[in-house]
Amino acid sequence: MKIVLAEKVSPATLAVFQQEPSWKVVTADKITNLEAELADADALVVRSAVQVTAELLEHAPKLRVIGRAGVGVDNIDADAATKRGIVVMNTPGANAVAVAELTLGLMITMARQIPKANAALHNGKWEKKSLQGTELRGKTLGIVGLGRIGLEVARRARSFGMEIIGYDPFVAPVIARENGVTLVDIDTIFKGSDYLTLHVGLTPQTEGLINKHSIAIMKKGIRIVNCARGELIMDEALAEGLTNGTVGGAALDVFRQEPLKESPYFGIDNIILTPHLGGSTDEAQEAIGIQLAEQVSAYLKDGVVQNAVNVPSLSREEYVEVAPYIDLAQRLGTFLGLATPGNLENMDIAYAGRIATGKTDLIRNAVISGVLSDSDVNSINATAVANERGIRVQEDKKEFASGGAGSVLKLTLHSAEGDASASATVLHGNAPRLLSLDGIDIEAPLTGTLLVFRNHDVPGVIGRIGTVIGEHGVNIANFALGRSVRSQRVPQGQAMAVVQIEATPEKVSELIHALRKVDAIASVRAVELS
């Protein structure tokens, strides 16, 4: 076996690989031509600097695994790796404590005005009276995202005597309770927090989460921390909030473009900027390196796949047959997860028709990863993540599908707020299609930007929806309708619509804000599907 360590690693990381005496390990300081070294390599280990492109992989015909020491895999062409049968692994969670500690440190830094105090003393000024701070004790901390890092932050914030509220539709309520977090909706987070910290991955739904609309409903003087992804914040909106006093302070460790060279934040005195230091501790870097080395070694020796972000475990023939339904499962999970409020507790997945007779593990995992819509959940680790979050997954198979569809996938989500269900199929040409939502027949494409409406079945609603969308300069690509019939499960007079539109994320946010003002509309949610 040949292992290429394309970037510097800790001695402890190197030692893991060196436990195998027959393995050849090439370290970064010995590499003069990476392409040449990859010609006979079995494994490639990188951090964030080396760009693993499709072109680079053409020089690695034997490569079996790429290990990323860290979480983000933006520097790796995972699609190209998948096509070549290369597993791409990362190390989520190894830096959770480091990021959590930085988050609390930034909160304290804002509360006690430490940067200003330090600068004043360096300039020979003793400005004690003007630098009076505040305590974290008794303040409300809002945490968006209760994964590994979010929960580490919650545990530490409790020791400061903070009240903690959290938003994460994918965490089981019991996990939140055990960590002293009160689960609330996202608007309550914005309205009720003295401090707000972000710990979610980047998805179409989380991009621009902090924008002019969300800032407008926040508690005046709120302080915001972002150690997750720079794209979660609309920079111009936050800069405006900082300068007009709506936002009392901010501390950012991540940015849309890194390294940061130009920014609307430059010159604003109530914001702290740090150069992506979240995982930059000796302990975190060593833990990340050791974890990755152990994962890569386990895969090369035993075929054990841990924290993979890309590769399904199927033969080529099996994959060709099941691939459209893996895609459908991901879309259906994302659609129902985002179209339905409530904190998920359990889910039921039913397979009917041809798909029920084959391997369904990856279809199941694709459903789960779609529902959770989390950047560190994928078709390899979805079941483990669901178990970790206390979410029970029940499966059922039927040999024949009802109706004219050859195969039908049905998903039901259970939460304290109630149940939600949807069914879908794949039409000719591998087109993913919604068949029903909450027991109401409604056929719609599961692609693009979708607006999901629940409304009272009264005259004029369709026209009003179309008018509002048109007034915002947005084009409607597809408009699907469904109406309830009298039953115990679905009350009389309920209707639904799934509208496919063509709009930017910022325009969608404005549109949702306007549509929620229409009286007959009970709810409207946006779902972004590729």
Automatic annotation (TrEMBL):
Pfam family, one: 2-Hacid_dh_C
Entry-linked InterPro entries: ACT-like_dom_sf (IPR045865), ACT_dom (IPR002912), ASB_dom_sf (IPR029009), D-2-hydroxyacid_DH (IPR050857), D-isomer_2_OHA_DH_cat_dom (IPR006139), D-isomer_DH_CS1 (IPR029752), D-isomer_DH_NAD-bd (IPR006140), NAD(P)-bd_dom_sf (IPR036291)
Catalytic activity line of the entry: (R)-2-hydroxyglutarate + NAD(+) = 2-oxoglutarate + NADH + H(+); (2R)-3-phosphoglycerate + NAD(+) = 3-phosphooxypyruvate + NADH + H(+)
Functional pathway: Amino-acid biosynthesis; L-serine biosynthesis; L-serine from 3-phospho-D-glycerate: step 1/3
Domain of life: Bacteria
E.C. number(s) listed in UniProt: 1.1.1.95
Top-level enzyme category: oxidoreductase
Gene Ontology MF terms in the entry: NAD binding; phosphoglycerate dehydrogenase activity
ACT domain mapped to chain residues: 450-530
Single GO biological process annotation from the record: L-serine biosynthetic process
UniProt xrefs under NCBIfam families: PGDH
Family, per entry: Belongs to the D-isomer specific 2-hydroxyacid dehydrogenase family.
Protein name: D-3-phosphoglycerate dehydrogenase
Organism: Terriglobus roseus
